[in-house]
Amino acid sequence: CFSNCGSPGSGSLDYDNSENQLFLEEERRMSFTGFRCLEISRWLICGLIGVLTGLIACFIDIVVEKVARYKYEAIKQNIERFTEVGGLSISLILWAVLNFSFVMVGSILVAFFEPVAAGSGIPQIKCYLNGVKIPRVVRLKTLVIKVCGVICSVIGGLAVGKEGPMIHSGAVVAAGVSQGRSTTLKKDLMIFEYFRRDTEKRDFVSAGAAAGVSAAFGAPVGGVLFSLEEGASFWNQMLTWRIFFASMISTFTLNFFLSISHNNTGDLSNPGLINFGRFESENLNYNLYEIPLFIAMGAIVLGALFNFLNYWLTIFRIRYVHRPCLQVMEAMLVAAVTASVSFTMIYFSNDCQPLDSEHAEEYPLQLFCADGEYNSMATTFFNTPEKSVRSLFHNQPGTYNPLTLGLFTITYFFLACWTYGLAVSAGVFIPSLLIGAAWGRLCGIWLASLASIWADPGKYALIGAAAQLGGIVRMTLSLTVILVEATGNVTYGLPIMLVLLTAKIVGDYFQEGLYDIHIKLQSVPFLHWEAPATSHWLTTREVMSSPVTCLNRIEKVGTIVDVLSNTSTNHNGFPVVVQPSKLCGLILRSQLIVLLKHKVFVELAGSRLTRRKLQLKDFRDAYPRFPPIQSIHVSQDERECLMDLTEFMNPTPYTVTQVTDSTETTLTDVIRTLIQNNFHLQETSLPRVFKLFRALGLRHLVVIDDANRVRVLNLYKSKVFSRKLKIVTMILFRWLDW
Amino acid sequence: CFSNCGSPGSGSLDYDNSENQLFLEEERRMSFTGFRCLEISRWLICGLIGVLTGLIACFIDIVVEKVARYKYEAIKQNIERFTEVGGLSISLILWAVLNFSFVMVGSILVAFFEPVAAGSGIPQIKCYLNGVKIPRVVRLKTLVIKVCGVICSVIGGLAVGKEGPMIHSGAVVAAGVSQGRSTTLKKDLMIFEYFRRDTEKRDFVSAGAAAGVSAAFGAPVGGVLFSLEEGASFWNQMLTWRIFFASMISTFTLNFFLSISHNNTGDLSNPGLINFGRFESENLNYNLYEIPLFIAMGAIVLGALFNFLNYWLTIFRIRYVHRPCLQVMEAMLVAAVTASVSFTMIYFSNDCQPLDSEHAEEYPLQLFCADGEYNSMATTFFNTPEKSVRSLFHNQPGTYNPLTLGLFTITYFFLACWTYGLAVSAGVFIPSLLIGAAWGRLCGIWLASLASIWADPGKYALIGAAAQLGGIVRMTLSLTVILVEATGNVTYGLPIMLVLLTAKIVGDYFQEGLYDIHIKLQSVPFLHWEAPATSHWLTTREVMSSPVTCLNRIEKVGTIVDVLSNTSTNHNGFPVVVQPSKLCGLILRSQLIVLLKHKVFVELAGSRLTRRKLQLKDFRDAYPRFPPIQSIHVSQDERECLMDLTEFMNPTPYTVTQVTDSTETTLTDVIRTLIQNNFHLQETSLPRVFKLFRALGLRHLVVIDDANRVRVLNLYKSKVFSRKLKIVTMILFRWLDW
User: Fold this and answer.
1) Does A400 lie at the interface with B, CB-CB under 8 angstroms?
2) Is residue B600 in a domain?
3) Where are the transmembrane segments (chains A, B) (predicted)?
4) In whole angstroms, what is the distance from residue B398 CA to residue B127 CA?
5) CA distances (Å), B159 to each of B52, B79, B434, in order?
6) Closest to A675 (Cα-Cα) out of B645, B574, B709
7) Which residues contact B306 (CB under 8 A, 6 or more apart)?
8) For residue A12, is it within any domain?
9) Is A398 in contact with A283 (CB distance < 8 Å)?
10) Which residues of A touch B285 (CB under 8 A)?
11) pLDDT band per the 50, 70, 90 thresholds, residue A377
């Protein structure tokens, strides 16, 4: 699936407003009330994003619960029927066929109709928030396929969660609502036209992603921090509040509608799709001596191992499993294997536990256990993963054999690792938590038996879950808050943070986080937070793209068409110059395309050919899918016309200076000697340019010499730093003008 | 106190690294290991900041608890002795004198020794984080006075809290630790020299402020968000994690040492100075219909009223109470009045409640109540404010009469309002919470009686507290998280957020937040988050300072001394030009001072006068207190020497372009006509420049024309925008080159 994500058509987003004359005129015309209305619209949109995201989460949850109940009840009855009379292979086949069919539906939807809906969508949203546009990632169709796909894969019993995809869903909702139109439905509501540009749309998408996290984990603050940690560069107070608002509304909506569906209207105790349950007060506190134990658990590199295996698996998939039908077959194979392995594990397990009324299992399988007992292995495998996590956190000490937990950890680890990256919509959060909870509980049991201290296994399950998840996704701040909010208890803040930090530090020693690995495998050029530490010796001169393609302020139409059609210099922004190559502005490919489409030409005689003056609205209507240059027909006569770019170019692009020469003539010879000894060619260093790009969200930066002549437009092509610097292949994106 | 905060000597901080040759050489020399060591030092420093901040909080807490216990026990015994025999006026006098003396000590310390230690310090830290340096705000002496002052004022029974000052204390600790030296102690440990510049120091100070919040409220995430909401502009992932780490360590240290002092080592249930206590599970949930009620409570404008009254009081103080002895006298007066009013309220109250063992009051005053009963008014007044807040949150319904609560609200409101701004170290968080909790509880009682629905008064007390605090300080995201963490329960997230948002929106209609009011009254030029909405018609031309003072790259020492001594153009940065006025760099006042001090002169004969080459270390040693120009003696001979600024200037300052003319000659006449119709002089608009300043934390921005000639250096003087735009007096700071 990931093979086709880096396909042509992806590009970067432009978070720098093009302040051309049209824009400035509009802004200057607008009254204070106008701006206030815009602000109110923003809040309204964020509220709407929250409500819709919450509703989607609610829909997924209810459908999954209902259908999964039918499925498990049916299989349970079947197993019970055949346990005594023999012939459990029929039950196995029933189970496998049920899983098989659901996964097939989900996989066909994804592989054939919208490959970008595969996986959790978090890498894609992370890219989007960081300015890389992956085609079709925020379309309505993607959302529909995603929702159906995730329902199918969770019901299909794969080792997946429905939480990750919520983040993608929230982002799609946000992108749709904020633009007031849908390409899939071909419907334009003619509202929110002001927000039809990359800057504004990105803000709403971050709110949507946060709302998704919030609905998934009942973690509104965690959602905000997720958006910030993954996406933000410039922190804006008002924006953060709106994101927080969307998150709050989202979790509240989910909570409210779930309470209705549970016939318990107004009971707001289900804030998220996953609920870790309330940790009992006697388990709450941890002792000081436990902290090193927690840190040691964080250092267990199972997360890194997971990433390592998945990395090679993904490379294998990119090479050999790139045809949709192969992808569907692989998904079905995984579904069948998952069912068979689960069944085998349950079948051969002899971990029988008494069935008490207090912690009633939802689908207790008696199998070969005595009456009044149930098979403990079945509580982990024969249930939705969310429920299994809760059981591992909260079941009484002694509910699980160490052997059961060990076997479960190993099998589920490999199943989850195999599953992530399949052509199905599915998240990796819950499987990670489940694996971690299993080995964490195992650690707790061991500790209790070894040191003969009482260690609550549920607590260690939580820590293990955090360690595993942290080792896989390598988030710290937002993940700490998400987990704390999901447990509903702030007491575990410090241990969870320490575990996540350890997991990150230890894991980063081996490999990047799972999402970063997938982003890299998709060949997405992704700009990191800071320039590499030792990059001060690099200057703009060394990373800028040259030679630069410039346009004159009054340019021949033919030249523009040729420049745009030239695939070797497939730039997206062009500096506009006046003779002799003095920079006077920057114009984007998309703007030129709109100008060509509307034929804003001037004949040499000076008369305009267009009937009306082009307005900002024309650019907004074309946003975000500008036609390719090939689809625009320009006749031979028109090629001879001129285009006046003055109104449309951004007359104040950000620039950096490159001092080219030091030809001083006014100083005495003595001093001149001094200068020549000291004065090297000074250029802007890479970290400085990097900061400018990152902080302002730039896509283009013009390098000028000291006479304001455009030397080069630094449309950086991906630059791989020397390995000797111990900087792993770093790809500079946004500089990449693709 | 605030009158002398805007005194000369304050200035802005420079968050843009001066990338001169010395700096680049150092960076380029540094190996990857060097950078890794730096990174580890940063983490170490953050850990140390956390530990020290936690210890300070612990010290304050233990001292206050112990001494307050003696005080209240003594007064209680005294009152009990005199209740029956009459002569309670002696108790009143004892109470008043005790308060009086403590407050006198605290006030003398603050007013005479370190006026900047007055108040909570939050406005000052907010200024610091936003780039405005207020003199002596992060010195060790300030910390000592602050800690002693806050202990005195809390024990002195003023309507203050010890939480706000923790933020200031954390910031001072951070500034001290990260620099590896102290000016107050005249001690230089010769470590962490790399961090001796504004950028790095600011990062650590934000960690310190977060650690302070974290220790004060047991809210590590809230601390991080506080730092971000109040100070950050550019979000940096690694920095945020370090801040989070410091916060976690801080709350953990406090928790651990408090558990030792409570003889309960390892019981980590006291994460902060204030502990809201555990909300009982039956009170936890709220109903849907309560949400509008909560929002309505948020709209009660008592917070705005508080700000309004305090605003006028502060203006009065600036005018008439600016002499230290007057300030001390005012503080003592307030202490006496507080004691008298409290006593009177308790004396005349007839709200007697049965003394049950479950919710044992710490200092129950029987007074005129029957045996086995206690005076309910005394639980609010006769206690530390933290304890009173807890009582209001958690005491059984019916513990307080509505009349008691009403009277308490009114008196405490005015007392707190009068107290904030006195020359004592004290915070406004706890008084606000207390006022809010009182009227919130009152609302709860009324609702229960009016609608005959059961409304838990403790819940309404919490909401009221949030509304009042939000109405006063106008924070939303961070305050929500702080309150949620302090209650230890995420269920109230949504209502608290809605209340704070309402309080902010309603309150902002009347007035700014308390901290912003005080920042404004201190005449600190403070740059807001975004340029005013309707400022697109303003260009750099209109806000830049002119004429510009430039220096030549090789400049006469005399000229430099004259420029620096000129008080009318008291700039802090100067563009460096080569003839004819071509920009080649930017040099700071502080750098010039160091150069002059070390006499880095060149005689016209070309020989250097200094023995050694100046290094970055010389600049770091002088940081942050560069001597004034007046203290540097330059002889008449030396004035004739030259200074070569090449090595020391920043050769790549950020610039914006101002297009000055459109003298095109290469186009046909027809087109020229066209241009003249369309092409206006294009300049960078204010919002664009604003974004550059805010995102990059700039202090200077050079405006150049299209030939790279320095037109003006926009060292903006404070600019008051037209009222017609409905933009309230906005002062552009950082642009202010003071």
Assistant:
1) no
2) yes
3) 40-64, 85-113, 204-227, 239-260, 291-313, 325-348, 410-439, 490-510
4) 44
5) 27, 21, 9
6) B645
7) B413, B416, B417, B432, B435, B468, B471, B472, B514
8) no
9) no
10) 267-269
11) confident
Residues B355 and B323 in one domain: yes
- Where does residue A277 fall: left (phi above 0), alpha (psi -120 to 50 degrees), or beta otherwise? left
Question: Of A248, A579, A647, which is closest to B678 when you measure between CB atoms?
Answer: A647
Distance CA A332, CA A325 (A): 11
Domain range for B441 is 62-266+284-521
Quick check: A227 contacting B, CB < 8 Å? no
* CA A386/CA B628 separation, integer angstroms: 66
pLDDT tens-digit profile of B116-150?
Answer: 898 888 988 888 887 777 888 888 999 999 999 99
Largest distance between two CA atoms of chain B: 108
Question: In A, which residues are within 8 Å of B534 by CB distance?
Answer: 30-32, 35
Mean pLDDT of chain B: 79
Q: Is residue B160 part of a domain?
A: yes
Is residue A251, in this structure, part of any structural domain at all?
yes
Domain end, chosen from A521, A547, A569, is at A521
Best of A37, A43, A708 to substitute, by most chain B Cβ atoms within 10 angstroms, is A708
Single-letter residue type at A618: D
3-state secondary structure of A70: helix
Q: Which residues contact B233 (CB under 8 A, 6 or more apart)?
A: A234, A235, B694, B695, B697
Q: Do B582 and A706 touch (CB under 8 A)?
A: yes
The pLDDT value recorded for residue B541 is 62
Shared domain for A285 and A313, answered yes or no, is yes
Q: Is the pLDDT of residue B662 over 70?
A: no
A28 touches chain B (CB under 8 A): yes
Pair A172, A280 in one domain: yes
Answer yes or no: are the C-beta atoms of A423 and A321 closer than 8 Å.
no
Residue B526 to residue B523: CA distance in whole angstroms: 9
**How does pLDDT run across A428-445, given as a tens digit for each residue?**
999 999 999 999 999 988
Minimum distance, in Å, between the CA of residue B637 and any CA atom of chain A: 18
Put simply, whether A674 touches B (Cβ < 8 Å) is: yes
Distances (CA, A) of A71 to A95, A261, A363: 8, 20, 11
Q: How confident is the model at residue B607 (pLDDT cuts 50, 70, 90)?
A: low
Candidates B236, B140, B249, B148; CA nearest to B184 is: B140
B413 interface with A at CB cutoff 8 Å: no
Question: Of A488, A521, A554, at which residue does a domain stop?
Answer: A521
Pair type for strands B642-644 and B554-556? antiparallel
Instruction: Quote ipTM for the complex.
Output: 0.82
pLDDT of res. A716: 33
In this complex, the residue of B271, B288, B647 whose CB is nearest that of residue A256 is: B288
Same domain, B706 and B576: yes
Cβ neighbors of B478 (< 8 A, separation 6 or more) are B213, B222, B225, B226, B228, B229, B230
The domain tally of chain A equals: 2
pLDDT band at B41 (very low <50, low <70, confident <90, very high): very high
Question: Which sign, positive or negative, has the C-alpha torsion A380, A385, A387, A391?
Answer: positive
Cα separation, B477 vs A236, whole angstroms: 12
User: pLDDT tens digits for A80-122?
Assistant: 888 778 778 888 888 899 998 999 999 999 999 988 898 888 8
| Torsion sign over Cα A107, A109, A114, A116 | negative
Tell me if A272 sits within 8 A of A252, measured CB to CB: no
Does B673 contact chain A (CB < 8 Å)? Answer: yes
**Which pLDDT score is estimated for A450?**
80
CATH number, domain containing residue A698: 3.10.580.10
Given an 8 Å threshold on Cβ–Cβ distance, is A671 in contact with B606?
Answer: yes
Distance between CA atoms of A490 and A259, rounded to whole angstroms?
24
Dump the DSSP string for B508-527. HHH---HHHHHHHHTT----
